[in-house]
Structures are given as structure tokens and as C-alpha cells.
Design brief:
251 residues, Rossmann fold, 7 strands
């Protein structure tokens, strides 16, 4: 999947949506000063930066399987404890964190259930585990996949991924043994001044959407671009995106 890319490419593609989402998600997870906090699947550090402002930088840890992303976090947030690794095998001691968060990550874990169990393991009893995932139908990339399906109805989008439907994360958290599980829908709005501002990042090869565009020949890419421009217009236009979130308490 297209996440082994330069941090700047990811920031152009998803940062425009992840950045406004991050403070809402951190607030939902009730992150506060003095807490020891883990950012699982941190990417180039969008949520990590917010966590640093809410607690102290040396209390924040961040992990991601992509070396370019981790290098970007280490370069920009020198006091954060950064690691290259996966959610399913977190390199941290049991009960180490007060809050463990995964923003826009659970659906890309190789084994989401194992990833959530690892987040629980490294979080202290009474601490919080929280995650959020874009909604399949109204998430940040939903307008793109709607355009794809007009041309290619059988294209496999991100709707089948874990957590992408209302109630998915809540059910997963309860199954994992978390207590006091609370779901929510987090909504952000991003205005694109031009069509190109929206479209060009999809050509950078990031994530499933970028993989799909990269798989097209020139004619197919032009056809998809034409459909998207017809549906969305030349701009400005606003993308309203919902992310499903859940938080739970470690027993």
C-alpha cells in the first residue's frame, strides 16, 4: 500500500484533512498536561504535534512503519520518543502510557485486533485507548472513490477496511475488553480553492487512492480527472468529512 513515500507527499495528500482532525481527536481522547501519550501510526507527525502542545514533548512517543515518516517526526520534534515499527508489536513496556491513540490507522493495520490489543497492553489500567477512521461514505477520500465508481463500479475502495462503518470501532473496542467504550463522529470541513488543489495530491501515489491512480494509463487517468472535475467543479468547493471515533478505558 502506498505509504512508503516522502513525508511531504503524505502531508500534501492527507495532511490537509488530518491536520484539522487531529485537535478534535485529541480532545475526544481527553489528552491533558502531564500525561504519557503514544501516537500509533503517527505518519509524518500530524497528531504528534498536537499531542506535544497538550502535554510535554518528552512524554510523547510516536511509532510508524515508514522510515521517511519517522525521520520527519524526529527532525521536527526532537524531544519526542520516535520508533520505526508496527502497531501489532509495540516496543514499549506494559502499562507505560496514560493514553494510546491511533488516528486514521486502524483500517491499515495488518491485524487490527492485534494492534488494538497491543495498545491496551502498553496503556495503564484506567488509561484511555482511542482511535478514529474516516467514514466509508462521507470520509475525506469518499468524493474520490465516488468518481472512480462512476467509471469503474467494481473498483475496491476503502469501505471494506476495519472501522470504516458506524459502530465498527465501538464493537472492536468492546470485543478487545475495553470498558466504558464511547463512540463519536468527528466532522471537519476543508475548502479547496481550485480543482487542482484537490486533485493533484491524488497523483502522488499515496495510500489506496494513490495506488489506484498510479495503476491507470494516461487515458484512464484523464477520464477519471474529467469525471471528478465535472462532479466537483473548478472550485472553490468544500469537502465535509466524517471520521468515526471510539475511546475506551483499560481494565
Amino acid at each position: 500500500m502506498g505509504f512508503d513515500v516522502a513525508a511531504e507527499r503524505y502531508a500534501r495528500f492527507m495532511g490537509r484533512y488530518a491536520e484539522p482532525l487531529a485537535p478534535h481527536f485529541a480532545d475526544f481522547a481527553r489528552v491533558s498536561m502531564g500525561q504519557r501519550v503514544l501516537d500509533v501510526g503517527c505518519g509524518p507527525g500530524t497528531l504528534t504535534r498536537v499531542l506535544v502542545t497538550l502535554t510535554e514533548a518528552h512524554l510523547v512517543a510516536a511509532i510508524d512503519p515508514s522510515p521517511p515518516f519517522i525521520e520527519a517526526v524526529a527532525r521536527k520534534l526532537a524531544r519526542v520518543d520516535v520508533h520505526t515499527g508496527v502497531a501489532e508489536a509495540l516496543p514499549f513496556a506494559d502499562h507505560w502510557f496514560d493514553v494510546s491513540l491511533a488516528q486514521l490507522v486502524v483500517h491499515f493495520m495488518t491485524d487490527p485486533e492485534a494492534g488494538i490489543q497491543e495498545m491496551i497492553r502498553v496503556t495503564r489500567p484506567g488509561g484511555t485507548v482511542a482511535a478514529c477512521v474516516w467514514d466509508a461514505d462521507t470520509g475525506a477520500v469518499a468524493p474520490f472513490w465516488a468518481c472512480v465508481h462512476e467509471i469503474d463500479p467494481e473498483a475496491q475502495d476503502e469501505a471494506f477496511l476495519a472501522g470504516a462503518r458506524m459502530g465498527d470501532l465501538e464493537q472492536m473496542f468492546k470485543k478487545a475488553g475495553l470498558r466504558k467504550v464511547e463512540p463519536s463522529g468527528l466532522v471537519i470541513r476543508v475548502t479547496h480553492p481550485t480543482f487542482e488543489d484537490w486533485w493533484d495530491p491524488y497523483t502522488l501515489g499515496v495510500g489506496p487512492a494513490g495506488d489506484y491512480v498510479s495503476s491507470l494509463d494516461d487515458a484512464g487517468r484523464k477520464a477519471l480527472e474529467d469525471v471528478a472535475r465535472r462532479r466537483l467543479g473548478n472550485g472553490p468547493f468544500t469537502v465535509t468529512a466524517t471520521a468515526w471515533a471510539a475511546r475506551g478505558t483499560v481494565a
